[in-house]
């Protein structure tokens, strides 16, 4: 099989503790015809030194230094510079198995698809935890079937993409959980997606990362915006997907209200809390006619819509007993 050039985009920001392990896993890929686009997004630790060190060790590595603009901007820079026929994104605090690229590339070629996806292992405190929401499909699946709340489908990093997918797509700069704003568009554009039922990607869960950090109102509001964008996207396209997104948005609003009420400052975020419950009630008017949720979800949403503060108090009480 002819080895086409594959671009691996690696955004870097203050990850010197993990960067060398990540870089080694990439340069030791069994698939050799790769270019590694490293975008140092204004790191203030030793990350820039490590980037330059590996650039000297492997001529497939290209390093771009830029002022700190965030993960989305760093990925966009990589997309603007890369030349491969296929593109993969790896986060610089994670690492991949040696045959990560080879098996995804082979899956794309054998099934004639534009995207391949694999399962992953979550690494937390040096323990491997297999994702419970990993894929169970065989070989291929329609892109529409992937558009759900499953973690492996809402992240950009455990996949290989045909270059043409990104011709008119870029990440939204300044958003947290930026993958949520783009993955549904990619999956919807794919008739079929290749599936590799192997744990080829190792995702590191860190307490100091974006996903592991404590309550953040921006992250909360960005998640809601992503859900609203997805709902709007499917409104005139797919009724079933629109209904599913409606259920997911209410769940997101419900969870966001609780986290803001419990972990945020209720006095500071009174406007945001009001907007969340107002939006949830608007969605609920449609939701009750579709009745797409489970009985448990319906009960939770009903209590939340009518008595949001009581719902929060019940959640707090439940958490105390669970502990």
Description:
By secondary structure, the chain is of the alpha/beta class. The protein contains ten helices and ten strands. α1 links the parallel β1 (6-12) and β2 (34-41). The protein folds into two domains: 6-204, Alpha-Beta Complex (Spore Coat Polysaccharide Biosynthesis Protein SpsA, Chain A), CATH 3.90.550; 217-322. Strands 1, 2, 3, 4, 5, 6, 7, 8, 9 and 10 form a ten-stranded mixed beta sheet that branches. 37% of the residues are buried.
In short:
The protein has 323 residues and is of the alpha/beta class. It contains ten helices and ten strands. The protein has two domains: 6-204, Spore Coat Polysaccharide Biosynthesis Protein SpsA, Chain A; 217-322.
Please describe the topology of this protein.
Blueprint: E1 6-12, H1 16-27, E2 34-41, H2 47-57, E3 61-66, H3 71-81, E4 86-89, E5 95-96, H4 100-111, E6 115-124, E7 127-130, E8 140-142, E9 159-162, H5 183-188, E10 192-204, H6 217-234, H7 239-263, H8 270-290, H9 295-306, H10 308-322
Parallel strand pairs: 1-2, 1-4, 2-3, 6-10
Antiparallel strand pairs: 4-9, 5-10, 6-7, 6-9, 8-10
Descriptors for this entry?
323 residues; alpha/beta; single chain; ten-stranded mixed sheet; Spore Coat Polysaccharide Biosynthesis Protein SpsA, Chain A; 10 strands
């Amino acid at each position: 099989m002819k080895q086409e050039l594959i671009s691996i985009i690696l955004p870097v920001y203050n990850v010197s503790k993990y960067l060398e392990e990540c870089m080694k896993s990439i340069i030791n890929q069994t698939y050799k015809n790769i270019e590694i686009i490293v975008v140092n997004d204004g790191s203030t630790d030793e990350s820039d030194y490590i980037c330059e060190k590996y650039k000297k060790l492997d001529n497939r590595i290209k390093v771009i230094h830029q002022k700190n603009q965030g993960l989305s901007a760093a990925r966009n820079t990589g997309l603007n510079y890369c030349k491969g026929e296929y593109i993969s994104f790896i986060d610089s605090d994670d690492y991949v198995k040696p045959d990560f690229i080879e098996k995804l590339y082979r899956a794309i070629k054998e099934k004639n698809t534009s995207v391949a996806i694999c399962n992953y292992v979550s690494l937390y405190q040096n323990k491997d935890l297999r994702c419970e929401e990993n894929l169970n499909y065989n070989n291929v699946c329609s892109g529409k079937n992937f558009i759900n709340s499953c973690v492996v489908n809402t992240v950009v990093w455990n996949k290989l993409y045909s270059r043409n997918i990104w011709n008119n797509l870029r990440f939204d700069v300044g958003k947290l959980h930026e993958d949520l704003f783009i993955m549904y568009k990619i999956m919807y554009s794919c008739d079929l997606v290749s599936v590799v039922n192997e744990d080829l990607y190792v995702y590191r869960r860190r307490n100091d990362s974006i996903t592991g950090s404590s309550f953040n109102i921006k992250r909360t509001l960005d998640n809601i915006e992503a859900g609203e964008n997805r709902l709007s996207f499917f409104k005139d396209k797919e009724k079933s997907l629109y209904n599913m997104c409606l259920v997911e948005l209410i769940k997101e609003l419900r969870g966001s209200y609780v986290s803001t009420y419990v972990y945020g400052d209720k006095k500071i975020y009174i406007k945001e809390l009001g907007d969340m419950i107002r939006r949830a009630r608007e969605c609920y008017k449609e939701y009750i006619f579709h009745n797409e949720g489970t009985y448990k979800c319906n009960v939770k949403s009903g209590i939340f819509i009518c008595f949001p503060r009581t719902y929060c108090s019940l959640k707090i009480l439940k958490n105390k007993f669970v502990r």
